[in-house]
Design a protein that fits this description.
Order of helices and strands: HEHEEHEHEEEHHHEHEHEHE
Structural class: alpha/beta
Strand content: 15-25%
Number of helices: 10
Distance between the termini: 76 Å
Shape: elongated
Helix content: 40-55%
Mean pLDDT: 82
Radius of gyration: 24 Å
Low-confidence stretches: 22-30, 267-281
Amino acid sequence: MKRTWLVVSLAVFVSLLLLFGLAFSLGRWEQLGGSKVALITVEGVILDSKEVIEQLEKYRKNPSVKAIVLRINSPGGGVAPSQEIYEEILKSRQVNKTPIVASVGSLAASGGYYIASATDLIMANPGSITGSIGVLLQVPNISGLLQKIGVKSVVVKSGQHKDLASPTREMTDSERQILQTMLDDVHNQFIDVVAKGRQMDRKKVEAIADGRIFSGREAQSLGLVDQLGNLQDAIDRAGTLAGIRGKPTVIQERKRRPFLLDLVRGLSPLNIDLPMPPPLTLSVNYLLG
């Protein structure tokens, strides 16, 4: 009898082990268990949308994920990646009816706030920095330096504005007008997104869409933030919106740095991430200025 019990127990254990191993190898282990809240982080300058979009798509296909929390710590970034993340958030909400809550950490400004406005609910700390509804275009000008070292730039072009915003010469009035018209258009798109997402009168958004920043508490009083609270509050709120009873189980995609990078960071007395310098190219950014 005892031997039979041991054999049965061993068979069950091996079966469970094989099941978990198969689920893990197929990338399906996260679907085991009950209802969950998925946590996606957006850290630093938004230069690429691929990673966030892949996570949103992954959790859209996971039937156990009933809600998503988007944790944002970003000063903004490129227009295109911010808009792509925004659209993907809307897709997750519309296709799967998945509640998505934005949790503002220290900073969610410009492009960071742009993507937050696509969520069902925005939660921030009282001292969080947010807002900065505006568009900034930076064009480096190194013509003075080139003159000092005796270097000349020769340009052969097919059209008058083909070298628009060249860093090797001063910008002309007509070029400035072209860029200003483009920026005004993108700025209007930003205002439309906030007005729609926050269900605010467009005139009210226009009045505060001059690039200024707000604390979380100020943003709440203006209607840019729904509630004040930390990350755990946002997770609990997402679980409630999804109808999850009790404390929700949270899953998050872990990013593993190379061992050598971990070793170097561990030996560093400052132990900080150093941002890469921006490229000297024409770019339109939602940046905190």
